[in-house]
Amino acid sequence: MTVSPRRLLISALVASTGLASFSLGGAVAFAQSSPAPSTIAHPDQWPAAASPAAITDAKTEAFITQLMARMSVEEKVGQTIQGDIASMTPADLEKYPLGSILAGGNSAPGGDDRAPPKAWIDLVDAYRKEALAPRAGHTPIPIMFGIDAVHGHNNIVGATIFPHNIGLGAMRDPALIRRIGQATGEEVAVVGGDWTFGPTVAVPRDDRWGRSYEGYAEDPEVVKSYSGPMTLGLQGELKPGQTLGAGHIAGSAKHFLADGGTEDGKDQGDARISEQELVAIHAQGYPPSIDAGILTVMASFSSWNGQKITGNKTLLTDVLKGRMGFQGFVVSDWNAHGQLPGCTNISCPQAMNAGLDMYMAPDSWKGLYDNTLAQVKSGEIPMARLDDAVRRILRVKVKAGLFERVAPTVQGKLDRLGAADHRAIAREAVAKSLVLLKNDGVLPVKPGAKVLVAGAADDIGKASGGWTLTWQGTGNKNSDFPHGQSIWGGIEQAVTAAGGQAELAPNGQFKTKPDVAIVVFGEDPYAEFQGDVAHLGYQLGDKTDLALLKKLKAQGIPVVSVFLSGRPLWVNPEINASDAFVAAWLPGSEGGGVADVLVAGKGGKPARDFQGKLGFSWPKRADQGPLNRGQPGYDPQFAYGYGLSYAKPGQVGTLAEDPGNVAAAGSVDRYFVDGRLPAPWRMDFLGAGSVKTIDAGAQENARQVAWTGQGMLAIHGPPVDLSRQTTGDMAVMVRYRIDVPPTAPVTMSIGCADDASCAGTLDVSNLVKAAKPGEWRSAKIKLSCFQAVGAKMDHVTAPFVIGTTAPFGVSLTEVRLASNEGDAICPK
Q1: Who contacts 690 (Cβ-Cβ below 8 Å, separation ≥6)?
Q2: Among 559, 547, 588, which residue's Cα sits nearest to residue 459?
């Protein structure tokens, strides 16, 4: 609910500044939960596995024993901690002998997400050099550099971007998965990396989870068939006394365990399931990967029946290292140890004692090192547990070839980044991943046809989705994919080669009436937690894509829909408005793979037939949350395994357009966009001044705010929980223009319900004064900055409040949450 402007005004202006204190009402309902089932795993109920003997061969173990005999306890503790390049420098290794460095989702050399490959190589080498520098009393041990190569080496401009896992699962092609793993490993190695946090072997059971696209399928059969081949692709086959071959890197099976089974699909949530289900559904991808020699396993953020996996000894030690025979090391997720009861980001002996071997402590590494060292010296962490963790870490470093890294045979060969053979693999994967849901005879596009291509067909960034150059995958342009080809580029090439004509018109306004229209549309990029949704409806409140389809159909043009998404979504109205409907998932940088299936050559046949089969059940209604084959009441629109082809066509009648018991979803991250306030937000000015709508490059897309005295502009609505966005380093992004320079301090706030003491207010005067009047510019202010000054982020009712006490003028075109891509600040 929202409160009256009068109540808001009275509350807002009582403080001496007139801005720091306000109340925006809301109600919170706390659900009563039943007692949690057992969190103790029983190893004899789990599948047996074993790391290959090659990982623990006598030569390797003897080397490690000799090395550990020379190591100080400080050096041993250092091996168990991983820091991030955004929060440390190579020079820090002189005092803090950390064992690993990572570049997280938004970390890059110099904070530049588009840094050239050479900058990555130089950065990694600088850390390596410092770790091995000769110093008195120092045992030189190479660092291990880790990175999230989620779908190819997605951190580097020019790399091959493969389809996300949800598309790869639709292929049902383990042999191709191995080739994808090998190509990915080589491209990571080219720029100096030696470890990727993959394969993901999650089994997503609720497609509302924002990481669903990172899973191969809802059924463990696909995951089980892929985890071994992907491991072998990344690492190659382990051999006794030998290191990984050239172009191979260490992998990490993740996220152990049940990250895809959380209640309501909540990221970092709780899997409230039986041990039997935990084993039968969520554990099946690990044994094949372990048997294939996976060198590391990442523990999950999530919980099992209320207990965080990172602190569950029966799972990490008794099951994973015991029953499953895993001889590599276990690493945590991003500061996940800090979520354990009694722990903080800088102190958590419970995690290591439970079986964690390496803490991923991106920005907490320094305090964590000091505290862990003290805990080992006091005996709180037994020396035997530390030695076991260190031995496992050194074992992986030996097998990864880090101790023999004298003249790398792959690093620096930049012609292998986005190489033609890798791109051919990706194009094959794109074609094989497409699932044909409907075809009323319009596909394949006939040779010689006039083809209109509309929607987002020329947007490689949208086709690639999250985890592409940046964590959330936002802000990418086609120029960021110099070796890539958009879906439009592929279609234009294929249509022209077949003697036809292709016209690109995103809004559907064609110059020549086409024989057929191909419309590309779907979800915008997102990554973990930002992608969590309340239901599976697509554009329930603002059916702009449906309107485009209907407009073309009304003109007598057959319509082919190519749907981009990281999960199956309820699109029955869009399917009804289409003559053919293709689930293209998130295909990546090789859009030509789409044309290979949709467009016929001069001979009348396309290069490939449809091969993809649904790895996720397609919903019949938007309110179908968990929808998995075999569950009671299973009632999908298109069942698991469904997929038409030219060889095996099928008929799809008119589908029901009742979305079920859902309402149009409100936005938790978009507050003012394109001149509109998405539900449930509203804007009010309270005090001395006014707001009016203006044009700023487009019709009525901005608000101009003028203060004549004390007052504030507030965007407010019902309470939303932004705590996960805060820990995820998100920021409030504002695009603004100063119209009248301020004559008094200007503040920006985030407010919560009912109590002014839980608001967080920052002085943004310097930021405002630095802006040239009349010039549009953008600023990102970290949510954590507001939290640090008192904002209660789990109950936000006013995500944006700006105010002052004297004349001031500013125009706004956009207010939303955005990923911190090294450009977010705390104002000073």
Answers
A1: 705, 706
A2: 588
Integer Cα distance of 331 and 353 in angstroms: 13
Taking the alpha carbons of 819, 824, 825, 827 in that order, is the dihedral positive or negative?
negative
pLDDT score of 377 more than 60: yes
Per DSSP, 517 falls in state E
The interaxial angle of helices 174-190 and 220-235, nearest 10 deg, is 40
User: Under 8 Å CB-to-CB from 173, ≥6 apart: which residues?
Assistant: 432
Q: Match 């599976």 to its residue by tokens.
A: 536
- According to DSSP, the β-strands at 516-522 and 760-763 are unpaired
> Does residue 763 carry a catalytic annotation?
no
Rounded to an integer, what distance in angstroms lies between the CA atom of residue 80 and that of residue 101? 11
pLDDT average, residue stretch 368-396? 98
Q: E-assigned strands of 652-755?
A: 670-673, 682-694, 702-716, 730-740, 747-752
Write down the catalytic residue from 75, 113, 528, 590.
528
Which band of pLDDT confidence, cut at 50, 70 and 90, is reported for residue 142? very high
- CA pair distance 12, 685, nearest whole angstrom: 11
* Confidence check: pLDDT of 6 > 80: no
308 vs 512: CA distance, rounded Å: 60
Hey, what are 170's tokens?
A: 């639709």
| Burial class for 110, CB neighbours closer than 10 Å (0-12, 13-18, 19+) | exposed
Half-sphere exposure in the Cβ direction for 356 (13 Å, CA): 34
CA distance 491 to 365: 49
CA 188, CA 718: separation in Å to the nearest integer?
45
Q: What is the pLDDT of residue 18?
A: 38
Tokens 């000769």 correspond to: 134
Mean pLDDT of 686-705: 90
Query: What is the secondary structure of 304-371 as a DSSP string?
Result: ETTEEGGG-HIIIIIIIIIIT---SEEE--TTGGGGSTT-BTTB-HHHHHHT--BEE-TTTHHHHHHH
Q: Taking CA 409 as the corner, what is the angle to CA 408 and CA 413, rounded to the nearest 5 degrees?
A: 105
List the one residue out of 689, 436, 483, 518 whose CA is nearest residue 588.
Answer: 483
Report the C-alpha gap between 583 and 219 in whole angstroms: 19
For residues 13 and 43, the model is more confident at 43
With CA atoms as reference, report the closest residue to 392 among 139, 100, 182: 100
Residue 582 belongs to what H/E stretch? strand 580-585
Determine whether 462 is exposed, middle or buried from the number of CB atoms within 10 Å of its CB (0-12, 13-18, 19+). Answer: buried
pLDDT confidence band for 674 (50 / 70 / 90): confident
Choice between 727 and 771, residue whose per-residue pLDDT is larger: 771
Q: How far apart are CA 437 and CA 579, in angstroms?
A: 10
Q: Which two tokens stand for residue 545?
A: 């894509």
**What is the pLDDT, as a whole number, of residue 404?**
87
Answer yes or no: 333 catalytic. yes
Residues 251-282 as b or e (16 or more Cβ within 10 Å = b): bbbbbbbbbbbbbebbbbbbbbbebeebbebb
Residue % of the chain over a pLDDT of 90: 85
pLDDT at 17: 34
Q: What backbone phi and psi angles, to 5 degrees, belong to 147?
A: -155, 155
Place of tokens 């890197």: 249
Q: How far is the C-alpha of 730 from the C-alpha of 85, rounded, in Å?
A: 18
Separation of alpha carbons 504 and 510, rounded Å? 8
> Running DSSP on this structure, what letter comes out for residue 518?
E
Per-residue pLDDT averaged across 376-381, rounded?
98
Strands 747-752 and 760-763: antiparallel
% of the chain exceeding 70 in pLDDT: 94
Q: Smallest Cα–Cα separation from 400: which of 247, 258, 266, 520?
A: 247
Instruction: Report whether 80 contacts 393 (CB < 8 A).
Output: yes
Active-site annotation holder among 333, 523, 545, 596: 333
